[in-house]
Input
Amino acid sequence: MKKIYLLVLGFMSCFFYSCNDWIELEPEDSLAKETFFNTQEDFNQAITGLYAILRPTDADAVGGAYFGNLYWEVCADVCMWKNSWTQPWFDISRGELNAVTGNVDLVYKNLYYAISWANTIKAEIEAKADNFDEDFVKYVTGQIGFVRALCYIRLTSLWGDVPLVDKIYTPEESKLPRSPFSEIMEKIIIPDLTLAATNLEVTPYDSREGIATKQAAIGMKVRAYLYAEDYENTIKSALELMELEKQNPSEIGFLDNYKDIFSNSNEDNKEILFALKYTAGGYKQGSTFNTTFGSKLPGLPEASMNGSWETVSVLPEFIDSYPLIDGKTVEEGSRAYDPEQKWANRGPRFESTFYIGDYSMVNGLLYESSEYVCNISAQCANDYPLTINKGYMNEDDKIDWTNEDESDFIVLRYTDVLMMYAEAKTMLGQIDDSVYDILDKVRDRAGIARVPRGQSQSEMMNTIQNERKWEFAFEGLRYFDIRRWGIADQVINGITSDEKYDFGSHKVFVSGKNELWPIPQSAIDANPNLSPNNPGY
Output
């Protein structure tokens, strides 16, 4: 598998970087195409390469088409970030994103690289379908549909209206205008995910790891509909997946133990519908989570960790928002709060989300505050001795600390689908037992009291917003949630701990502007049909 990644990425470079166009829409190496796309193994390698394009493996998480990883928490009301040169994340967190911010063009471009490669494979498999058995053609077209839809969901979530690239264009045809989000949903995202759900099976084709399945496609369709505020179809698609779960309980489902979802020894468990795959073992195909977001861990050799940059702080407001086991926060007067053991009685979800200084046990050893807790602010580290856990920091032995984190980055979980169903039901005013049953399951696993019955629509939306914040912490969803809910300015501009602690910068969200990202200026210069830019830019 590692050799395939290298082979295919090298092969694709002749496609993507041989043209002077800002976005390569027409692979020029026709000889390479004619030589390569002839056998089943060729197409297998092409699909492997397509997924390899998605994964960021650089420390700044801008090198992959499905970029960001933990940096989305920096963009939201979750983390503070120290390094001003880490772009575009630093400028986003301060409300200073603009059309020439560093790397904003790269992440935009990388998404279209993935789409272009998907379109190339699509054209080749359609032209040569008669040479392969039907199941293999379905597998290839299903994977193409899933990845292309995934990229367009990310594009439209950040930029709104974008060019609709559904085939290989000539340079003369490639100066496309921006298409409305509704058109991209109708012509690309939903048809591609429907095709993927139809063509793919519950178990991965040929037992290949890291590729889409039927449940991944249906689950991503739930997210697409929710982001489009199509609540009826959100519910319909979620129910489709729930029925599939009943038929395949060993392959799809809700894990009883929260920590088990993120364990390196339990990857590809039934709750994870899709994840970006990473692997350790000296291949340099691992992630860089520990390098930039981690701390040192007891029981691991120094050479296998970084954790000394002290570039990130989990915001006190975020930590304080978590309820204790009685369902109330400290500010709300939780009776479970013990000032002598202030981090006790928080439940297994909280304890699996954070390493807690002088409280957590890691590899059978105490996670000592003075030895392991890292923070931008020494005072904040003292008051809030918590660092990111959730399986990202790889508690197993590693060869070294660069690109050797085993932990996958989860893109979609079954619990997310359940919560999206509950949200859609709430938005339609259909708050019934099915909504409360989902929240009960989530809260029971988290180890905190159930939510009270009889909530109004606004009360239930607040409940769901909070539950998503805690349940999916450090999974790259919060930034997208607060923007689509229209509360980003409220929660980000309401942060005051950046005044108390020396974080080196302040959180800002500019309402009426930062709801969308700017189309990169370099893209507009190359294609004036992309003008005008998004509001405020």
User: Anything to note?
Assistant: Residues 1-31 have pLDDT under 50 and may be disordered. The two ends are 43 Å apart (CA to CA). Strands lie at 79-81, 272-276, 312-314, 354-356, 361-362, 365-366, 386-388, 409-413.
